[in-house]
Amino acid sequence: MSITFLEDGHAASPAGWGAATTACGIKYQGRDDLTLLVSERPCSAAAIFTTNLVKAAPLRYDMALIGRSAASLRAVVINAGNANACTGPDGEAAALAMARATESALGLPVDTVFVMSTGTIGVPMPVEKILGGITAAAKGLAPDNGPAAAAAIMTTDTRPKRCAARIDLPSGGAITIGGMAKGAGMIHPNMATMLATITSDAAVSPDVLDAALRAAADISFNSISIDGDTSTNDTLLVMTNGAAGSPLIDDMDSPDYQAFIAGLTAVCQRLAKEVVRDGEGATRFVTITVRGATSDADAKQAAMTIAKSPLVKTALYGADPNWGRVLCAMGYSGAEIDPDKVRLSFGGMPVLDGGMPLPFDEAAASDLLNVPEVTIDADLGLGEGEATVWTCDFGPEYITINAEYRT
Amino acid sequence: MSITFLEDGHAASPAGWGAATTACGIKYQGRDDLTLLVSERPCSAAAIFTTNLVKAAPLRYDMALIGRSAASLRAVVINAGNANACTGPDGEAAALAMARATESALGLPVDTVFVMSTGTIGVPMPVEKILGGITAAAKGLAPDNGPAAAAAIMTTDTRPKRCAARIDLPSGGAITIGGMAKGAGMIHPNMATMLATITSDAAVSPDVLDAALRAAADISFNSISIDGDTSTNDTLLVMTNGAAGSPLIDDMDSPDYQAFIAGLTAVCQRLAKEVVRDGEGATRFVTITVRGATSDADAKQAAMTIAKSPLVKTALYGADPNWGRVLCAMGYSGAEIDPDKVRLSFGGMPVLDGGMPLPFDEAAASDLLNVPEVTIDADLGLGEGEATVWTCDFGPEYITINAEYRT
Asked: Quick check: ipTM above 0.85?
């Protein structure tokens, strides 16, 4: 199995994909804020939505849509600057209007366009501006616009997140998986939103695609934490159009499926890690691995609890080899642990064994943490369960960004 | 029912209680760090311990002790500066030695002394210093030392937390309930620890006392959050010695029980709020009330999720009337909510109704938040469930305190 990331890859890198962007002036000045990502053929599609009970209007639209169009989706329209959340019946109408306008402008059947919004919540959508932008953008579709698309979906992100990988299938052909994401940036005046769209020219049946996306998300987008808050708009979409001409992947036991999910996971992980690297106020990228748990689920629960602990995250900011806070977080995580069996390392240096601190050089341990990429490894000594998650530290900049007084 | 807080009340205010403190030099210079709190008669006792699976040695000692001495406890010994956590078999021996030394110095039977420790974790206990301190302190027991006791248990707390209330019982007598707590201050190099001891001269049977403590803790110490981390040492102890001469309270349906639990709750809530007010880096004291939930438990879950959200807490620091973050937190809290029915107010000013933002004056709303005591009120519009919790905001000082580089 071979996965090769393309230089300068993006969501329109796979065959049969085009992108377009334009500036509607929804909120930002001097930049594009509306994106179309379009396949020349019908796609299999699958999506994962926020578990927050407060769901933005486009998510409610998409959740219904994906049920009836999982074999026929053609495009996604995305606006930045307004999340279309807490906008009532007008918001529902705006999401529907965006879909219909895109279908109309591109000459597509109804129910083939997925809608995403990110930005301020509780503000009425400037529908006319957005519909005008859709009409304008629809004239400029091109594969070369993939990088611009990744930039146009940004809110307080400091850089676009995009990539594409080429995967050689065991059955002979080659496919490309591309993607773009916007991350946990705080949207004045409201909340973080994670949006990600994955594209491919592979041919995958909708049910297999749905299973693949859930498995890949579990160890990528669902294994990251910036601040533990779950937004109203989080959406992960995958669309595959078969334009590569490779055989249909409709069997989860096939070698081609194994290659596809490996590629999908690699693309999702790369984008998810980029979201963490661009976390608000982050100065360190932290990889937390928990091994020896009684199950993978327990390992992930322990690792995510460490990743979310403000005490751990502030210690990481200070390059403090504070094993006590890590052990403490695992202790209240709900995962099964026996404190007397826990081993812990920072940057590869053992600091705790059998629940007891080892005599380690504090300054050397701090040096291992005072770097942009930090690792924390825990072994619970109970079983074979294992999980890796990614997070960032918690510096003063996080508070500055998120406490900014609204004017 | 009448509850009157005493001026300058403390844990030795109830009849038959004495306190003593001394300086052992465990960690701090120029201050007392060892405390004895002693009843002249055997007490009914009940305790609640951290749910963290990583439990400090004294907690393991006390958990066994309370089972066999719930009707005969006499004293508690408390040291500050070392949490006796992650200290292995030597730590177990140290906790036992502290109990035995106190029993011996005071001429008490074995298994009558409860042990608490707070401070650094993972550092061997300076047992000789502590045992010497116990012997010295035992000579100076006096009711007047209650205020000194509350000061000697502090770690990074900026002020002692203590109070006492007089409760008139319906059956005729009067009792006093006192208490002291130390709070969520970060202990260099490790974690927050909440210790609280409640004393009384009431006569209460051990099983009724246990039930009363759990009910009172649920709406006091278990309804506060500083940063969402649960420590290895959290302990809440109550001891009642009957010295007031009032009738035995052994019936949870009796009027005297109602008066007792009202007083116990009032004392616990006052101390718990003091812990929040002294939260690390806190600039605002925040009271969050959720009404209209389908159950009290759901209301509390929603309220505690708001209280723990870093996005809400940083917005509060910035006096930002950011209803979106509050609604979002309730949405992922796990509590049953219908976003279209939620009403929300900041400082009494409605900002959200039916899940939609109201046109409110942002500057006026910010003014309502830019005060030391802030209220957030949510009504879920679903049922009769209600809960109130207390938290603080999240300012840059929190990170400064917790990221401090260990030298």
From this structure: no
